[in-house]
Amino acid sequence: MGRLFLRIFLWFWVGIVLVGAAVALTSMWAASRGLDATWRGHLVSTVRLSIHTLAESLRREGPGGLPATAGRLEAEEGIRVWVLAPDGTDLAHPGEAPPDPVARVARRVLARRRGRPPRFLPWEDRLLVAHRLRVGDGHPLVVVLALPRRPPLTHLVQAPTLAVRFLLVLGIATLLCWVLARYLTTPVRKLREATARLASGELDVRVGETVGRRGDEIGDLARDFDRMAERLQEMVVSRERLLRDVSHELRSPLARLAVALELARESRPGETEPLDRIGLEAGRLNELIGELLALTRLDEAGGGRRREAVDLGALAREVAEDAGYEARGRGVEMRVTVEGSPRVVGSPPELRSALENVVRNAIRFGPAGGAVEVDVRSADGACTMTVRDRGPGVAEDLLPKLFEPFATGEPARGHGGGSGLGLAIARRAVELHGGTISARNREGGGLEVTIRLPLAGA
Q: What is the pTM of this model?
């Protein structure tokens, strides 16, 4: 049986006990006040009706009808009745002596010269009330009634005691539910926030200082989350360190290979084709290593570089002009459209790298003789840069993975020789500036990549 289950179980029992105690205390409070106004009015009405019933019985049937009338009142109303003559004889129970408290009350009433309002006197678990009764020219009689001291259940659920009980129960239940909800949802909300931060790339997030101190299953979950986050951070850091170290180590043999190629060309001037092929592959490998290092530097920087105002329109024109040499080699036309002068705050090299990778990707995969469109505009406090080509596009199931490292979308775009790191570098640079990057297939063919960045001062 889980610890959390036991705590919830105890909470419910505490609630039941508190509600029961509230009902009992309100009942005692109503009784201790000498009965509330509603109950007292009920007793006065009952006394008047009982005395009237006994007086009518005496008028119609005389003293002989009192036992039957008294028995009926006891059976139907729960009222004990004594009708005492001046000599102390009980006419309602012939042959039975009344209890001493009843006799004393009757004597005091007979001794009074003037009538007084009836008073309720406590006697055991009942209330005694006495009233002088004279029928015709006979001797005065004293009617003594013993009524219930505490209200029955049917009275306790009547206003105003019902409203008091309802408010007490509602207040206790609301307080307990609020405390229990806070107890259960607060750590869950903190875990959810930590999970969202971990998913966004904050690998150092931990919840052990807050949620992990609990001794129930939620605390166990928090400690498991911390272990998972720590292990994930170690794996990511190890991967980045491996990429950085391998990239640096490969640069040296590549440099020596380039020197060896030049020496081979000088020693064998007639055999250049194999050497050119080796040089081409070495160049691609060097480019891949450069992209790996760029991606690693972005991950390590974490947006900590110096920021300044960047005109994205001017940046787009510069990137298009630089990429134009490669575009002209494939007969691709560069088209740049800029609305206004959108500015963002960021690192110019990183933003240039992001846009340049997207543009060169469009040139590489676009059809020869086609066009690459770069559209820059601002709206709703953000700047949007859109790069469109008319290439084969990307399979729909690969679109969500297009910005992951080494994801090239080759099944739809063909083998264009890309390393699969350009768009990953672009995404990381954009995210470091608080922006987003997305891609979708265009109608009629081609890919559309959209970069959205917050404007300066937005």
A: 0.48
Q: Model confidence over 372-424: pLDDT tens digits?
A: 999 999 887 889 999 999 888 888 888 888 888 766 655 444 444 455 678 88
Which residues are bridge partners to 337 per DSSP? 375
Q: Which fold has domain 203-300?
A: Helix Hairpins (1.10.287)
Where would I find the beta strands (DSSP E) of 277-423? 308-311, 333-338, 343-346, 371-379, 382-388
Please give the positions annotated as active site: 248
**Burial state string for 362-393 with b = 16 or more CB within 10 A and e = fewer than 16:** bbbbbeeebbbbbbbbbeeebbbbbbbbbbbb
CA distances from 385 to 202, 313, 352, 370 (A): 27, 9, 12, 20
Mean pLDDT of 443-452: 89
Q: Domain segments of the chain: what residues?
A: 36-149, 203-300, 308-454
pLDDT in tens, 90-121: 888 888 888 888 888 888 888 776 656 667 78
Dist CA 183 CA 13 (whole Å) = 16
CA 262 from chain centre, in angstroms, equals 66
Q: What CATH code would you report for 308-454?
A: 3.30.565.10
* Cβ atoms of residues 30 and 151 within 8 Å: yes
**Scanning the structure block, which residue is given the tokens 């500015």?**
343
Taking alpha carbons only, the member of 421, 419, 361, 353 closest to residue 389 is 361
CB 306: neighbour CB atoms within 10 A?
7
Q: Average pLDDT, stretch 349-372?
A: 87
CATH-assigned architecture of domain 36-149: 2-Layer Sandwich (3.30)
